[in-house]
Amino acid sequence: MKTALLRLKEWEERRVEDINNHRVICEHIFECITDRILSGKKGLKTLYKFFIDRVNAERAFVRMSLMVPKLDAGFKNPGEEAPILNEILPKAMKEADDYHMKFVEKARIISDFMEDEIVKGILDKEDKTFREQVDVLVMQYKKLRATLNRENEITTKVTNEYVNLYKKSLSFQKIKEDLFAFEIHFLRQARRQMISQKELGHFTVFFIKEMQKFEKVRLESFSQAMRLYTQSMNQLYGGENGKLVVGTLSQYNSQEECDKVYALNKLLKERDMDFLNQVFATVSEITMTELNIYLNSIEFQKIATNPLMLHQCQASVEENGLMLGTKNTNVALTVGRNIVVYDLDPETFDYRIHKIIRISQIMFKQIKETSNIIEFIETKKKLLGNSLKHINIIFRNREEKQTFMDLYSKFSY
Questions:
Q1: Is domain 2-297 annotated with CATH 1.10.510?
Q2: Domain locations along the chain
């Protein structure tokens, strides 16, 4: 019994360590990406405010300019609309007014362009699309994490129950549960926890790839907005500074920028990189490929032997004429002095305990050597008398029946 507990303790410590390492890396990646999302939203907000303020400033300039008196107004003959143009100064005043109105018209053009083509045409659409897509991904991650947290809580509870049963058994206290049957329950829950962790790892890989795509589109939208703005300003107003900005933007590559933002040293902490270097000790450099392999590869490791089970075979079991489980269900003799009838998927640990028969409560009928069947009566004490159940175990052959009976005879003291 003590050997079984130590075996389980060592196995559980390795399993918990694997899960914790995996979860920490998933969480660090999620934190990094959510920080990047907040940064992206802040950048968009800044860019959005810049263009809105520029639109408002240009339109304010247009409004104020239209309210300013024209210079040629003081050079008109009484009762005439047109200024006196045969004089040099009045002519210069009229040209100055026309010159000013050209700036007003350019301000109107650039303000409409920024509002229609940049704010509404790019930034509004990008903001809506980015928020919708990213919010869905973040919610999916949080939902998977919540599921994992529930599985962690359940697993911790089952583990504590299991350890307490072991301790009671080692101190020779009576326990109602069969340790072997409870271990099946524990292993199934441990596997469920591992599956939840693996699903989180799968989604983290998907999350990174999707965010890289969204980030590239977002950065391209930002650069497109700035290119349109500087090109329009340069066409309307000219100047070397405008050409300089246009030239700088022409060198921008959104894919390269995205790769920098989602580089491993940005997604992972130094501790994570050190750990992955240990996992992939034969690899010269850890890349996104190794990270994806690690996040996708966490597996449930089975326990090779089970000291709690003295013998196990497949048979058909009938109780009062009704079959328990499948035609080839599992029948086990356990150290808890029980016969456990159960179905178990060895890969998924999905199980169903059909019956736990206490050896102290059974009485065998006469067993024929030529038969592959053993018959016995299970007796349980009730308030209003004893409950009797007739149970048949139909083995696949007489050899399996004899092996079972030999072990049972040594154990049924």
A1: no
A2: 2-297, 309-411
Q: Which residue has the tokens 């100047």?
A: 239
What distance in Å separates the CA atoms of residue 4 and residue 165, rounded to the nearest whole number?
12
Token pair 């079991």 is found at: 317
C-alpha distance from residue 277 to each of 27, 205, 282, 287, 320 (Å):
19, 19, 9, 10, 61
Q: How does pLDDT run along the chain (413 residues), one tens digit per residue?
A: 667 777 888 888 899 999 999 999 999 999 999 999 999 889 899 999 999 999 999 999 999 988 888 877 766 666 666 655 567 777 788 888 888 888 899 999 999 999 999 999 999 988 888 888 899 999 999 999 999 999 999 999 998 998 888 888 777 777 778 888 888 888 889 989 999 999 999 999 999 999 999 999 999 998 899 888 888 888 887 766 667 777 777 888 888 888 888 999 999 999 999 999 999 998 888 999 999 999 998 888 777 667 788 888 999 998 888 888 777 899 999 888 889 999 888 777 778 888 888 888 888 776 677 788 888 888 876 655 567 888 889 998 888 988 888 888 776 55
Backbone angles phi, psi at 179, to 5 degrees: -60, -40
Instruction: Read off the pTM.
Output: 0.81
309-411, what's its fold? PH-domain like (2.30.29)
